[in-house]
What we know:
Layout: E1 10-13, H1 27-36, E2 49-52, H2 62-74, E3 79-82, H3 91-102, E4 106-110, E5 131-137, E6 155-158, E7 162-165, E8 171-174, H4 177-181
Parallel strand pairs: 1-2, 3-4, 4-5, 5-6
Antiparallel strand pairs: 7-8
Amino acid sequence: MRNREISFKKGKGFTSGNNGIQDTDGHGTFITSLISSSKFGLAPKADIYVAKVLESSNKGEYIDIVSGIEWAIKEDVDIILMSLGGKKYSKNLEIAIEKASNKGIVIVSAIGNDGVSVKDTVNYPAKFNQVLGVGAINEDNRRWFKSSRGVHIDVMTQGENIEGYSLNGKTQKSSGTSVAAAMPIN
């Protein structure tokens, strides 16, 4: 995160790469700008804790996500936002989600961008009952065409052509359930 308008209180990297919490592809910067920037942010005065759990290709391992959740629990955060998802079930992820939920932490997750299928395509961790699974609607307030489908969708909110900051500090528009998960619920 190179934008001065985007700040965070504390961060920790959990991936095997040597980038610490450095955002190398812009996904984290964009999502964080929707929460904490003075221009786009919904809560610019919020204390943001960054747990880097994905590599630069937005790929990762559940073990890193679990470590990030456990760190967030230790840091006594109020909300865990996970603009990520995976198709496979993980018992360790479920246990970490349950621990966070039992501590009173609100857990929000994108449901995934696999909605071109008519099958249930909601990703984990949104499939867990303790997680608020967020899907995306388009500018016409209809389901965004890529927003996953399934029974674990708790809410749908704006997720198409949302403006935020890119990695280089310029404004850009992005779409998806990761974006929707960081947006206010209408």
